[in-house]
UniProtKB/TrEMBL annotation:
<feature type="region of interest" description="Disordered">
    <location>
        <begin position="179"/>
        <end position="213"/>
    </location>
</feature>
<feature type="compositionally biased region" description="Basic and acidic residues">
    <location>
        <begin position="193"/>
        <end position="213"/>
    </location>
</feature>
<keyword id="KW-0159">Chromosome partition</keyword>
<dbReference type="InterPro" id="IPR036388">
    <property type="entry name" value="WH-like_DNA-bd_sf"/>
</dbReference>
<keyword id="KW-0132">Cell division</keyword>
<keyword id="KW-0963">Cytoplasm</keyword>
<dbReference type="Pfam" id="PF04079">
    <property type="entry name" value="SMC_ScpB"/>
</dbReference>
<dbReference type="InterPro" id="IPR005234">
    <property type="entry name" value="ScpB_csome_segregation"/>
</dbReference>
<dbReference type="InterPro" id="IPR036390">
    <property type="entry name" value="WH_DNA-bd_sf"/>
</dbReference>
<protein>
    <submittedName>
        <fullName>SMC-Scp complex subunit ScpB</fullName>
    </submittedName>
</protein>
<keyword id="KW-0131">Cell cycle</keyword>
Length: 213
């Protein structure tokens, strides 16, 4: 094992979260070949109880998936999403950037403001920008936390409908014409949000909460 491999291994084991290649390179001596070291470590740990995995463009050591059952009693029970939240998250993941009205059109029911707020609070969804259409509605997309939670390297790795249901992310029969989104930046028909702007969605929700409704 090369010295660079040892250094990368030490950093990844000690890190509190996934690290990008640039994060690792910033901590190593100048000229260190981080991509080669990562590739070597990934091969070295393949098939072992701990493996090197890429999530959201970053790297971390994690328990091999086939051994996850051993950790069941030691894991904190995750907060379970309601069916409405699961369906909303699935629609956002496959249709992003998507507006609230578009979410309602796919689900066939009115989107609860509380449901969207839960997804925003958990960091699985973020506000991306405003659609260049009348009313300039806010659009939503998934976050790196979404990719990390479901163990995806990028949006291009989103599973098929059957796999989504098996993973517990999807529990309804949505249209079969879902397409994997382009993980690039803003849509050409989308304007960035002003950081000082209070989207009407949050304003409405907070207003209802303060009124006790």
């Amino acid at each position: 094992m090369s010295e660079t491999e040892r250094q990368v291994e030490a950093l990844l084991f000690a890190a509190a979260g996934p690290l990008s290649e640039q994060d690792i390179a910033d901590r190593l001596p100048a000229g260190s070949d981080v991509p080669t070291a990562i590739a070597a470590l990934r091969a070295r740990y393949e098939g072992r109880g701990v493996e090197l995995a890429e999530v959201a463009g970053r790297w971390r050591f994690q328990t091999a998936q086939d051994l996850a059952f051993l950790m069941t009693e030691e894991r904190e029970e995750p907060r379970r999403l309601s069916r409405a939240a699961q369906e909303t998250l699935a629609i956002i993941a496959y249709h992003q950037p998507v507006t609230r009205a578009e979410i309602e059109a796919v689900r066939g029911v009115q989107a609860s403001k509380g449901t969207l707020d839960v997804l925003l609070e958990l960091g699985l969804v973020r506000m991306r920008g405003r659609r260049r259409t009348p009313g300039r509605p806010v659009t939503y997309g998934t976050t790196d936390a979404f990719l990390e939670h479901y163990g995806l390297a990028s949006l291009a790795d989103l599973p098929g409908m059957a796999e989504m249901k098996a993973a517990g992310l999807l529990s309804l029969d949505l249209p079969a014409d879902f397409s994997v989104p382009n993980p690039a930046g803003l849509d050409p028909e989308e304007d960035p949000l002003d950081p000082h702007e209070a989207p009407e969605f949050h304003t409405d929700f907070l207003g209802e909460a303060e009124a006790g409704r």
